[in-house]
From TrEMBL:
Pfam families: DUF305. It comes from the Bacteria. This is Putative outer membrane protein. PANTHER family: SLL0788 PROTEIN (PTHR36933). Keywords: Signal. Residues 1-22 form the signal peptide. Residues 59-207 form the DUF305 domain. Residues 24-53 are annotated as: Disordered. InterPro entries: DUF305_CopM-like, Ferritin-like. It comes from Luteitalea pratensis.
Length: 212
């Protein structure tokens, strides 16, 4: 039977061997240096720490544009109350109105806290062609003139187009080098992508029902 000191020594050797094996198995993470500076090896904790990530010009452009994008959606849902009696559409419109107004305020706060300018509240009326999915003035006029089932179909088709444009904006943000990595913005853009994709599926199903 081994003595206590011998057991302790054996355990220490095992622990050292396990630590050495783990270190050998862990991949090396090398962070490139700034121009003129050498690269350096960093820990996994450092590699996953986002506290020092700062927003980029692409982030500001995304937030400013998305405020205008949301503003048109709010104008669209404002038409619902006087143009349809469809309760499912009314509930959908209320969900979109509440969520997009809340998100618009969040985006304004995000820009303000970072000292970035807020967009003109009416800029989206003139810039619908600059952002994916935005309805043209002609489409908005057609929607406003419609009633009943025609309105329902135009609204759903238009909002699907609008939401798909928002997904394109998120995709373009994440495709920009360094874009969308600031933690708050990353969470928001990811939520937009998930929520609007879900609403597109729901509206597509409703549109098929109206077509029967």
């Amino acid at each position: 039977m081994r003595s206590a000191p011998a057991c302790i020594a054996a355990l220490a050797l095992l622990a050292t061997a396990a630590a050495s094996h783990a270190a050998a198995q862990s991949p090396r993470i090398v962070q490139p240096g700034a121009p003129g500076e050498p690269s350096r090896e960093i820990t996994a904790a450092e590699a996953t720490d986002t506290s020092g990530v700062r927003h980029r010009a692409a982030d500001v452009h995304f937030m400013q544009g998305m405020i205008g994008h949301h503003a048109q959606a709010v104008e669209m849902v404002a038409l619902v109350a006087t143009r349809t009696a469809n309760e499912d559409l009314r509930r959908l419109a209320l969900r979109i109105e509440v969520s997009q107004k809340d998100e618009m305020q969040m985006m304004r706060d995000w820009l303000t806290r970072r000292g970035e300018p807020l967009p003109d509240p009416h800029a989206h009326h003139m810039a619908h062609w600059q952002m994916p999915g935005m309805l043209t003035s002609e489409q908005m006029a057609q929607l406003a003139a419609a009633r009943g089932a025609e309105f329902d179909r135009l609204f759903l088709a238009g909002m699907i187009q609008h939401h798909e444009g928002a997904l394109t904006m998120v995709k373009e943000l994440f495709a920009t080098p360094g874009g969308g990595q600031e933690p708050d913005l990353f969470d928001f853009a990811s939520d937009v992508e998930a929520d609007q994709a879900m609403e597109i599926a729901r509206m597509g199903a409703m549109l098929k029902e109206f077509g029967k």
